[in-house]
Amino acid sequence: MRFVKAHGAGNDFVMIEDLDDALRPNAAFVAAVCDRHFGVGADGLIRITRARDADFFMDYYNADGEVAEMCGNGIRCLGKYVADRGLFDGESMRVDTRDGIKEMTLYRGSDGTVERVRVDMGEPILDRASIPVTGDGDPLHEQLSVAGTQLEAACVSMGNPHAVVFVDDLAGTAFEKLGPALETNERFPAKTNAEFAQVLNDHEVRMRVWERGVGETMACGTGACAVAVAANLRGHTGRNVAIHLPGGTLDIEWDDGGRVFMTGPAEEAFEGELGERLTSLLPETTSTKG
Fold it and tell me: Which of 67, 199, 226, 240 pairs as cysteine with 156 (C-beta 3.0–4.6 A)?
């Protein structure tokens, strides 16, 4: 079974082309492939297939094997994959996800391959029950007790849940302790992605992210969008924000119509073939042709 290893600002994925919709990845297979010691190694796995009402469907799984609604960095990599291989011809692409159809604009370099992608990420969800967050009150000022520390989080959904904590000194924050504790806090029935953000000025923010079901990643597209929205609503920034992550910078625009647009890079690292030890973890009824 062929695969491609790709990343968006360091957030990396194993991508498997399955245009005939023959594969049914299970948690054991995904976790084994994403294992950085015994597998290919990645933050998630993306199965690319056709879609009824869009150009493609992104079947996305976190590294622990759990399905996820949306991945902003991953969908840019999908756009590059299909365009660079001649599976799509054009600049505007529609990709279906578990969070609905996303429209993207592809930007090609001088050699004709896709280098950057702009994604319409939709409108942020600020209703606490829909994020979801239990309890009452304003989710943008959620008071939490996390690992013995009192935190105030701005809770936002970009199709998946995020809890944004603004800090004065990102380098001095106990990220490795607070990140996993915030992810699994009882206030979040579906767990949450945890972002810690330091505002640099009215148009730049630096952040680290602890992704749900993955751990720390070099970047998170939906997380960068959530941080930009929260920073604006808290009065820290304008509606156009450069979000600096360990793996690179994502440019976020929250337009006057309420939609969030994310622009960032998409790169491929290498490609190869999964061995029998990994493909044997798929259900027996699953085709492994590729």
Answer: 226
What is the arithmetic mean of pLDDT over 229-255? 98
Contact 89, 112 (CB under 8 A): no
Query: Do 226 and 162 touch, CB atoms closer than 8 A?
Result: yes
- Backbone angle region of 174, left / alpha / beta, with phi > 0 → left and psi within -120 to 50 → alpha: beta
Active-site residue identified among 34, 77, 155, 220 = 220
Q: Residue 234: phi, psi to the nearest 5?
A: -85, -5
Provide the pLDDT for residue 264: 98
Residue from 71, 77, 155, 225 carrying the catalytic annotation: 71
Instruction: Give all domains of the chain, ordered by start, each with its CATH number.
Output: 2-121+267-279 (3.10.310.10), 139-258 (3.10.310.10)
User: Around Cβ 135, how many Cβ atoms within 10 Å?
Assistant: 11
100 in Cβ contact with 236 (< 8 Å): no
Residue type, 173: T
Percentage of the chain exceeding pLDDT 90? 97
- Alpha carbons 61 and 9: distance in angstroms, whole number: 18
Query: How far is the C-alpha of 119 from the C-alpha of 122, rounded, in Å?
Result: 9
Q: What is the helix (H) or strand (E) element at residue 146, kind and residue range?
A: strand 142-146
pLDDT of residue 285: 56
Q: In DSSP terms, which residues pair with 114 in a beta bridge?
A: 108
d(CA 180, CA 184): 6
Top pLDDT among 285 and 160 is at 160
* Whole-structure pTM value: 0.92
Active site residue 71: yes
The answer to whether residue 77 is catalytic is no
